[in-house]
Amino acid sequence: MYKNIEKQVSLKLKDLVDYQKGQVVSKTLVQNEQVSMTIFSFDKGEEISTHAAGGDAMVTVLEGIGRFTVGGEQFILQEGDTLVMPKDIPHAVYGEEQFKMQLIVSF
Fold first, then answer.
1. CATH number of 13-106
2. Among 9, 60, 86, 98, which is least packed by CB within 10 angstroms?
3. Residue 42, SS3?
4. Could you tell me where the DSSP H helices lie in the chain?
5. Best CA proximity match to 101, nearest among 35, 9, 10, 37
6. CA–CA distance from 14 to each of 54, 69, 75, 82 (Å)?
């Protein structure tokens, strides 16, 4: 079920992806019919443009500050903050500064 991650090892999720200048970097940890789990890093000013997901999407910021626009409403999240973006509601993500997040989509 899990890939790209060591098992039976204590780790920090934010350490699984590095920042890259001018880029959004992702590492998929789980992908199946029920759930998708991905770790992202955003360089400052980078974004994922508006889109909708086929399931409820829960994000938890692991480091830094990100701006999430969900159904036209903006949320500024920082380390430790979590937000659920409902299925089929348009949303976008923007790096207010460099930041990392965990994304879990349940279908």
1. 2.60.120.10
2. 9
3. strand
4. none
5. 37
6. 25, 22, 21, 15
pTM of the model: 0.95
In the block, residue with structure tokens 């989509």: 105
Residue corresponding to tokens 């994304």: 103
What are the residues whose beta carbons fall under 8 Å from the beta carbon of 92, sequence distance 6 or more? 47, 48, 49, 50, 51, 68, 69
Three-class secondary structure of residue 14 per DSSP: helix
pLDDT digits (tens, 9 = 90+) for 17-43: 999 999 999 999 999 999 999 999 999
Give the tokens for residue 106: 């349940």
